[in-house]
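Good morning C.,

I know you're traveling, so I'll keep this short. The sequence:
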Amino acid sequence: MDQLAAIKVFCRVVEAGGFTKAADSLDMPKATVSKLVGGLEDHLRVKLLKRTTRQVQVTPDGVAYYERVSRLLRELDDIDSAFDSERVKPRGRIAVDASAWVANAVLIPALPRFYAEFPDIQIELGVSDRTVHLIRENTDCVIRGGLLDDQTMVGRLLGESRWVTAASPAYLARFGTPGSPQDLAKGHLLIPHQLASSGRATPFRFLKNGEELQVNGGSQLSVNESNAHLAAGLASLGVLQSFEWKLRPYLASGQLVEMLQDWSSASYPFHILYPPNRFMNTRLRVFIDWAIRIFAELQDTRPAPKPGHVAEEGPKSRARALRRGL
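The tokens, ready to paste straight into the viewer:
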């Protein structure tokens, strides 16, 4: 029996939560995965996993064994990566997950530059707005906007974008331009964004000179995906509130018009998250450094607010704004 291979397979079964998912992620037959784990159990003379028709449960001995060998595997991977980085350019696979907007507007257009520098790295890009369990789904890192809810992950700030309230010229010609946030609740249609994690529609929030307002106006449509949210605004279905990075090209072309510029909101941060044990992986490290450079190119160049219209941002208002998952 190849004990190291068996240990790696056992850890993947624990992380994936079953033999089938582990076999798929390892690109191995399920029978081979089961045989390796069985051989490891025979070698140790303990039962690591309890198999039932519906699920796989880790035994107390299996938990203790996993905690020790998983640390050893991480250290081994770090050692290999450190030596590889000294001899050759980074190579191998990394799995990245990002929202639809980040994938389509930021990462994919810039990937030719990444591959010009790191041609031997293969990226598996998952595109979704849902919460991804990095360990269970064998994902190396995820790029998300908003509050960092998972404190078990390491997060590096990629940048922050201001919030913008906007609508199409056709919508404004039909409904008029609101002069204050309160006007949005009177005869206007809003396009709320539903959080993928909870399904809850996020209200519009505004802040000016310490005064905070929350607006829940009329709505004919709500969406739970970032590109669909933008498409609804471009189709004149209502007023949308999103971060300036996403709306920038449409504001510049006149397809969307910014309104209520005297009112502000908390800036919207983007982070790249990864498990602490993956930090020393060379190919992941160079991808993270590259992502930071790419997001730096999105730096907001809007002029500073006019005197008398400086928005004050308290901890509570910032926390509420960061929870909006656009």
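Safe travels,
E.
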